[in-house]
Amino acid sequence: MFLDRLDEHAARRPMAPALVRGDRTIGYGAFMTRVDACAAMLRGQGIGREDVVGLTIADEIDHLVACLALMRIGAAQITLGTQDPQPVRDRLAARVGVTRLLGAGSSVAVAGRAKAADEAPGQADHDRPAIYLPGSGTTGDVKLVSLSQSQIATQAAIAYADYRGERILQLAPVEYNNGKRLRLYCLYHGGACIFRDGSGVPLTQLCRDQGVTWFDLSAYLAHDLVRASAQHGGLPDFTAVRIGGSRVSTALRAEFRARVCQRLYISYGATEIGGMPGVCMAAPEELTPDAEVVGRPLDGMEVVIVDPEGRPVPPGTVGEIRMRAPGMVTGYVGDAEATRRFFRDGWFQPGDMMSLSADRMLTFHGRADDMIILNSINIFPGEIERALESHPLVAEAAAYPIASGVHGQIPVAAVQLRAGAALAERELLAYARERLGVRAPRKVTILAELPRNGQGKVLKRVLAEGRAGGG
């Protein structure tokens, strides 16, 4: 399955680049030899297929070598990130029953061996839990999913065929969910994983120097590239960019294409279904200035839009998206309540509000749990966000409700201005009222930066609780 594919690359194209950092290139042959040597070392330290190993390795190449070595052994693994406080690592380790800790060059036993948290008796190595990852979402406790080697291979085959033989730059560190998965998908297809080398070279120059053909990044890093373009210019013509993982406003899409890269793709997905673009991806010619389209469902992906009772809605109608595909996970590890809420009758329903046109184009409208109900009027946060982001001095907006004993909920918003911009909050209120009327926010707060989680998603819960400092 997954490792078999990498072994094929090593046998057929041993000199083809697998990992590139600065002036150092590791071919598939040398890479898999190193993986096998690491697996032998770990076996010698007593690690076996019944272990669950906590990985705490910040170096990205060393981390990937250890990750694949553990797959070779058949042991399950979870990243206990070096950037996380020790109590966070301890809680994650306890949830999946970590038995060994693996740092840079050493391992420590922490408990007796036990079956992985969701392992069934007699499973083959390629169908047993291989990697535990945090699921999608920005609220509540971290939800964990497990992926087997078979699932990783299936997801890669369905959603990431465009990685085949390409040179891929992914900015999220390998210790992060997206950073690890996307690099595994790249390796499955025989691509080259490009890493930053710590030299501080601007990303536009890195793409030129390393011949990056696919550049995956989040929306908040796209904002950084737009700001940096004044000094460093845009990306080379041979680089295509895919943005996903969170909402990508129409304003950001337009500015990014004008100043950074015309070859912009917008993706939508979730860890549970295969990451981004696990569900769909919009090509540059499909992007429109007046709607947040995210593309048509990929081959092998089933998508339906439903109403609150779970009934399919007509084309163009906004509802909740349901999706399913080969290789998807079917529940959360040790969280039956969350599994019942988000996995229904074989479908994954993440709570995103979407519409699906008659020609199968998906458009994002926000989160179901972000819906604002003002005096029985349903207001999509996206309506407010798009209106505020149409102001030339606004970089990004986030709309959310605050509770009211009289009105139910009151719409408010926080905005992040463009670099160097100055604007009064009352001006933004007036601007929004002109465009939205009764659906306009009753308060707008200007922040130096919108609060985000490690994946770049805006934390509206933090905004609603008043824990984000003003600008």
Overall average residue pLDDT: 89
Quickly give the structural class. alpha/beta
Tell me which CATH architecture of the domain at 2-159 applies here: 3-Layer(aba) Sandwich
The span between the termini is: 51 Å
Q: Please state the overall shape, judged from the principal axes of the Cα atoms.
A: globular
Low-confidence stretches: 111-116, 119-123
Strand content: 25-35%
Strand order of the largest sheet: 2-1-10-9-11-12-13-14-15-21-20-17-16
The amount of helix comes to: 25-40%
**CATH class value of the domain at 2-159:** Alpha Beta
Number of helices: 13
Number of strands: 26
Q: Give the radius of gyration.
A: 23 Å
For the sheet with most strands, the description reads:
13 strands, mixed
CATH topology of the domain at 2-159: Rossmann fold
Account of the 3D structure:
With 471 residues, the chain is an alpha/beta fold. Helices cover 30% and strands 28% of the residues. It has 13 helices and 26 strands. It has helices at 2-12, 28-44, 60-73, 86-96, 149-159, 177-188, 203-210, 219-232, 250-259, 336-342, 381-389, 425-436, 460-464; strands at residues 17-21, 24-27, 52-55, 76-79, 100-103, 106-109, 129-134, 144-148, 167-170, 192-195, 214-217, 240-243, 264-270, 275-282, 293-297, 302-306, 319-324, 343-344, 347-348, 352-356, 362-367, 372-374, 377-379, 394-404, 408-417, 443-447. The protein has a 13-stranded mixed β-sheet, sandwiched between helices. A six-stranded mixed β-sheet has the order 6-5-3-4-7-8, sandwiched between helices. α1 crosses α2 (28-44) and α11 crosses α12 (425-436). The longest helix is centred in the first third of the chain and has 17 residues, at 28-44. Residues 111-116 and 119-123 have low confidence and may be disordered.
